[in-house]
From TrEMBL:
It comes from Superficieibacter electus. It is an enzyme of class 2 (transferase). Coiled coil: none annotated. GO terms for biological process: riboflavin biosynthetic process. This is Riboflavin synthase. Keywords: Repeat, Riboflavin biosynthesis, Transferase. InterPro entries: ATP_synth_asu-like_sf (IPR023366), Lumazine-bd (IPR001783), Lumazine-bd_dom (IPR026017), Riboflavin_synthase-like_b-brl (IPR017938). SUPFAM superfamilies: Riboflavin synthase domain-like. Gene3D superfamilies: 2.40.30.20.
Amino acid sequence: MFTGIVQGTAKVVSIEEKPNFRTHVVALPDNMLAGLETGASVAHNGCCLTVTEIDGNHVSFDLMKETLRITNLGDLQPGDEVNVERAAKFSDEIGGHLMSGHIITTAEVSKIITSENNRQIWFKLQDATLMKYILYKGFIGIDGISLTVGEVTASRFCVHLIPETLQRTTLGQKKLGQRINIEIDPQTQAVVDTVERVLAAREAALLQKEAE
């Protein structure tokens, strides 16, 4: 599990490509190396990856076909940076919201509005059917960052970013058209799905009663 409080950014130093598979090596910040072992979980842009090799601060991670398909990690090139967070421990402060590191889709940066000490970024989901899970003032994971949803329309939503978030994460570098990883809040998803099932069951019961 993760908290959505990004601990830093890490530069991709090398990438080894194989058929439907990729190993990338990142230079982790020194403050994230203590106690790190192979097999540990580290989120990259919100996607949970497993440490496969450690060489000083150069840490290797394997990305399988599904990860490359559903996230923006397959877009990375050497020199790019990713948001990183180590897995949460019991007794850690949960400053954001609980996140699984399981990316559900990506979204495209569709609009950026910058004003003094603030930035508003609008996103358009790759899978528009998931918009039902994005609610005003609800939680959402964007490239591993726990954020609160601002305005919501039928096809887009936005978040409001303070200077600290822009400085500590890669969101401050995002440009129009770039893809970001999305993790939907599982509690919101469960509530929406439950309500849909209940309403569908009631409608089916009414239709059956009318047919009798």
